[in-house]
Amino acid sequence: MQIKFLTIFNANKFLFNSNGFAGKENPCTVLYRRAHWNVPDYLPWGFSLAHMYLSRFSELMVHKPGEGLLLSLLATILAPLRYAYSKFVESDIKKKLRLEKHGMVPTHSFLKEISSCLISTVPEKFYDKVENGEIKLKKAPSFSFCNNGILVEGETSPIEADLVILATGFKGEKMLKHIFMSQTFQDYITGSPDAALPLYRECIQPRIPKLAVIGFSESISNIFTSEMRCRWVAELLDGTFKLPSIKDMEKNIKEWDEYLKQYSGGYYRRKCIGALHIWYNDQLCKDMAWKPRRKKGFFAELFEPYGPMDYVSN
């Protein structure tokens, strides 16, 4: 039996593989709202994204929450290099995935992509299947269901489909909000609609200090990031350190909010530490009385990527 597939993605994260299900006769149509920089991790890059974006040196190019004058000046001086990094990666992705040919070149920078945790990988031969007609790409700001498939806004002819896969995600702030019956606490946890969710160290709402939220703020590796937060919360419960005053926590939250708005564009609300995960972990380490610098040697500390194995012990 031949089945017509239609997959809808909120953030254009291509995870659908049509092998064995669709073909040129019954292609899979992928609807997306906005093109994103998807990384072809199966291709020989010739350079390391981890070294470019997950090292202390890479974070020196970015203005950081709570940074001093020297670091702020350094980030400004290194701004041209930061721009060159982003353009180099964008150029490589466009070439390898032939994005211009398919009208899939994003309008935002790769730095903004990684700073908002929207980066993902493209399945191998995905664009080969687009070129031979097995997969069809279609930009659709909004859509509605009809008797035989999906009707894209502004069009009169529907996209016929026997099966529709909705991979559009969810709004995590609504889930947090409805933990509480009290409107006051709902307002505390969600904060202002024009600011990122107010979580100190991405875990604690200053006015609800007995609630810890793990996993809302994203990173390049969410398991690694969540484990660090769990260890931070465990040390807090053990009395290793105490939370600052509500005023100081809210000041820190505001600083991170300003960073997110500067680098992640319209996606600041979802929260992401992807481009500053070392700076963020430094704060957790200092709270827990751990040594923040985890590498051996000056050059290793500055240029080697940081990962889970760097935080195995305190």
Automatic annotation (TrEMBL):
Q: Which domain of life is it from?
A: Eukaryota
EC number(s) per UniProt? 1.-.-.-
Position of the signal peptide: none
Pfam families of this UniProt entry? FMO-like
- Keywords, sorted A to Z: FAD, Flavoprotein, Monooxygenase, Oxidoreductase
GO terms for MF: flavin adenine dinucleotide binding; N,N-dimethylaniline monooxygenase activity; NADP binding
The first-level EC class reads oxidoreductase
Q: What are its cofactors?
A: FAD
Entries under InterPro entries matching the protein: FAD/NAD-bd_sf, Flavin_mOase-like, FMO-like
Q: Which PANTHER family match?
A: DIMETHYLANILINE MONOOXYGENASE
Q: What does the similarity note say?
A: Belongs to the FMO family.
Q: What is this protein called?
A: Flavin-containing monooxygenase
Q: Which organism is it from?
A: Gossypium barbadense (Sea Island cotton)
